[in-house]
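Design request, tokens follow.
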């Protein structure tokens, strides 16, 4: 049996010895959007690679990351088609611009699996993701419940730090957040769409809002862990103590440490490997000429959406460590060791 051959961008080249050239019908590209989040290099790509190794050992994989550059992603997209990819798993930098990529692919009989971020303007062949609107609702409702449990009166103000304006998934997260906050009784003081999900941009904006609103800010709904980290950095730099509840999403190691330390209130546990494996299964199904089953339809695209879990200090041990998603050795380092012990994380 041939080993899996992997062609990647120049910055990440992997070639397994002894691999034979695969036919065009078994070449699959995995194109990710940015490096601001570590998940793509550390979770999504390894998870997809492992699943494809199991499901299609003779397939050739091409992995590239666009580093938040939509023009670069278009070049990569055209390049992988030229290299013989007949199935492209695409997490778009710009969800609107990605419609043109789908059109190009379909004109050449190439299938497109939208991954994590949907493509609203032109249906892809399939979409796999966690339920992004559900995520937005869950993190915001969790924060609202915390404020109410702490006795924060109705009418108090929260900030809303959204994701990238070019990311349709960020828009879905925002819709879920809006749904929770609109029914909460709390006031949204201001909101911000964070370019490219960049934590420094979130930090700079939150710093300005602290100057503007001061102690009127009783909580912050941040759309992911990167923007949450930027938010917390701004609050601490301004001397806000205690830090008000801040939401997150992705369960990164940095966010788990902040939750353990008491600086971040929640995150979302959504192991990327789950979606990566689903994408691999859909790719193989399409490769075999089958119609993959769908649990949802989103933007006229057959979809499979997974429901993640909200993580706080109260359930972090069970959801993250007992579940084997992370280990204490990875998270409970240095200054976090004592706080981990207090939460019985060992």
């Amino acid at each position: 049996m041939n080993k899996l051959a992997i062609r990647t961008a120049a910055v990440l080249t992997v070639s397994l010895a002894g691999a034979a050239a695969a036919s065009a019908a078994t070449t699959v590209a995995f194109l990710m959007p940015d490096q601001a989040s570590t998940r793509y290099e550390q979770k999504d790509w390894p998870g997809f690679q492992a699943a494809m190794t199991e499901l299609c050992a003779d397939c050739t994989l091409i992995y590239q990351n666009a580093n938040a550059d939509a023009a670069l992603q278009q070049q990569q997209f055209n390049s992988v088609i030229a290299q013989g990819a007949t199935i492209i798993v695409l997490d778009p930098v710009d969800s609107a611009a990605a419609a043109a990529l789908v059109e190009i692919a379909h004109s050449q009989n190439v299938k497109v699996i939208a991954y994590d971020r949907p493509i609203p303007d032109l249906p892809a062949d399939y979409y796999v993701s966690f339920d992004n609107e559900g995520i937005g609702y869950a993190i915001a409702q969790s924060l609202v419940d915390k404020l109410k449990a702490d006795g924060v009166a109705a009418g108090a103000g929260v900030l809303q730090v959204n994701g990238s304006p070019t990311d349709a998934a960020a828009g879905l997260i925002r819709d879920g957040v809006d749904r929770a906050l609109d029914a909460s009784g709390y006031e949204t003081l201001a909101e911000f769409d964070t370019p490219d999900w960049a934590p420094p941009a979130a930090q700079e904006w939150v710093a300005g809002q602290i100057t503007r609103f001061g102690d009127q800010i009783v909580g912050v709904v941040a759309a992911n862990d990167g923007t949450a980290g930027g938010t917390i950095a701004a609050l601490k730099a301004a001397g806000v103590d205690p830090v008000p509840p801040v939401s997150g999403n992705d369960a990164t190691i940095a966010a788990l440490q902040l939750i353990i330390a008491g600086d971040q209130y929640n995150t979302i546990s959504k192991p990327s490997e789950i979606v990566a494996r689903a994408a691999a299964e859909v790719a193989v199904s399409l490769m075999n000429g089958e119609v993959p089953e769908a649990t949802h339809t989103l933007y006229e695209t057959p979809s499979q959406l997974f429901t993640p879990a909200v993580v706080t200090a109260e359930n972090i041990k069970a959801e993250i460590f007992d579940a084997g998603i992370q280990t204490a050795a990875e998270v409970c380092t240095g200054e976090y060791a004592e706080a981990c012990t207090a939460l019985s994380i060992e």
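Comment from the thread starter after seeing the answer: thanks! DSSP finds twelve helices and 13 strands in the chain.
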